[in-house]
Amino acid sequence: MFDWGGTLSVFADVEMIDVWRLAARHLAPEREEEMVERLIAVEAASWVEVRDHQTSTTLSGLLSRASRELGLDVAEAVLEEAATHHLDSWTPHIVHDPDAVPALTALRDAGHKIGLLSNTHWPRAFHEHFLERDGLDALIDVRCYTSEMARTKPHPDAFRTVLDRLGVADPTTVVFVGDRLHDDIWGAQQLGMKAVLRPNHLVPGYDVQPDAVIEHLPELLEVVRTWN
Q1: Do 107 and 195 share a domain, yes or no?
Q2: Exposed/middle/buried for 193, CB within 10 Å: 0-12, 13-18, 19+?
Q3: pTM higher than 0.85 for the full model?
């Protein structure tokens, strides 16, 4: 089971400011910078809730929340336009690891099922767009996005959703690979999974010991063989 951003894809430190700027220009062009700052604050508060309570959110939910807090119809006025431009703005930045296809292919050839679990407010279509573009969709049996779920990693319900869809009853037979010590490593270990860290210096630390550490995806093949 894999995390997406920073694990199968190269970590892209790009935020939703492009969407918020579109919204600000549409709704109050004379106060663009002020509006952008307020919208960024709304997004930041949403991610604090994800961090502290593992409560999922969606892009439409985030826009609705912005509408309520700013007293302007952000969601209804710009949702479709903002979503389209947001995906376009991310396209040049989303790059999957060149080792992802051969590594997943080798794991499948060895008889392993592959799952994906991503903490995200993006709709499924955004993620699927990039996975299909780079030939990864056919290599991942189950792809789960927390924008469609009630909980995010590290809540056990998020992991159990993927396990159920993979048809796996025993979490101890599963290896989770991710770049976040709290969401991915600690979360997976709480259910009895083996947890493999792919370090990312841009994400927060956490006091937990991964079962293995890899720098590159092909290293995972030997780790899994050893555990088998």
Answers
A1: yes
A2: buried
A3: no
